[in-house]
Design goal:
325 residues; alpha+beta; eight-stranded antiparallel β-sheet; 32% helix
């Protein structure tokens, strides 16, 4: 039964960030200051962008990227939290999720440096990525107590596979701080439910069908105090001749991911975790990815391109009808 004893007011708040838009749908008590809440939510995601954007020259991420190996760089606690999580998932996924793909992202035309693949840059990035060095989770040292980090090898970090999920988590924190107990937070393909709706019903979230150029629903998953994230090859890609290059990099191949996975959707308590694991499972592919998800106890849904159609593979509630077709 719902705990709400007031007649709720439904608010829809939104704004631009990280090259896309954030939105919050929430049921709040009468008299809630919607403007103050919207301002606080916008400030939270703007802080994430200012710290973690590879597109902003003065971001904390770029300060770390430009630092010489061995030099300690003072960093705010938020980006240190995300870096620590990224390195942990990098280790657990065997490098399927790797935050040190910045040079590859730029070289293939998906970053701030260029908007098309550059053969010389790709060769240079691949040489650096393929050079003998410790794994990324060992090549980057984080000292959260002292508020600093340092690289032990040349690394160009890119947090685009985790920062949006963290931005959703930060907005969820803001809502809790403002005593909002019923909300659905969204930033691009990453969402998190704060509680249920005021009616007691869970939040219904669409799982997209992976079709380039159009929005279509593959299924629906219900969320309550849970996050969901989807990674796929159908929203951001480059067309080079007859080949479509996905924007997600496989650091182990030093190239864009190339397998039969069209999209992966992951459920987790924190959206940061769902975001990073969705990327890891997309890169790992259906065989390695399924084994990895089973080992980690993940709830995940794969949409695979096979035989000219889509094949569904699910674990957890996705394997038991939790995503309604």
């Amino acid at each position: 039964m719902p705990k709400t004893f007031f007649k709720p007011q439904r608010l829809t708040l939104h704004g631009p960030t990280m090259g896309t838009r954030w939105s919050v749908t929430c049921d709040v008590p009468p008299g809630t200051d919607a403007h103050a809440l919207e301002q606080a939510l916008a400030a939270a995601v703007q802080q994430v962008d200012a710290q973690m954007s590879p597109w902003l020259a003065g971001s904390d991420l770029n300060r770390l990227n430009h630092a010489a190996p061995g030099a300690w760089v003072a960093l705010p606690p938020e980006i240190l939290e995300v870096l620590a999580c990224a390195l942990d998932i990098c280790r657990l996924s065997g490098g399927a999720f790797d935050p040190a793909v910045g040079a590859l992202v730029d070289a293939w035309g998906f970053g701030a440096a260029r908007d098309a693949p550059d053969a010389a840059a790709i060769r240079a990035a691949a040489a650096v990525a393929g050079a003998p060095r410790p794994p990324t989770h060992q090549a980057l040292e984080i000292d959260r107590a002292a508020g600093r980090a340092r690289k032990h090898a040349p690394l160009q970090l890119d947090l685009c596979g985790i920062a949006k999920g963290y931005g959703v988590d930060r907005m969820a924190d803001v809502l809790r701080q403002h005593a909002v107990e019923h909300a659905l937070v969204a930033l691009d393909g990453e969402l998190r439910a704060v509680g249920a709706q005021a009616s007691g019903q869970p939040w219904a979230v669409a799982v997209e069908s992976p079709q380039a150029g159009r929005r279509a629903v593959h299924g629906v998953v219900e969320l309550q105090d849970l996050a969901v994230a989807t990674s796929g090859d159908y929203r951001r890609y480059l067309q080079v001749g007859s080949e479509r290059l996905a924007h997600t990099m496989d650091a182990r191949r030093t190239a864009p991911v190339r397998n039969e996975v069209a999209s992966v959707t992951v459920l987790a308590r924190q959206c940061m975790h769902a975001d990073a694991w969705a990327t890891a499972l997309l890169v790992a592919g259906p065989g390695e990815g399924l084994a990895l998800a089973q080992r980690m106890g993940l709830e995940a849904l794969w949409l695979l391109r096979r035989g000219g159609g889509l094949v569904t593979l699910g674990l957890g509630r996705f394997g038991a009808g939790g995503a309604t077709p």
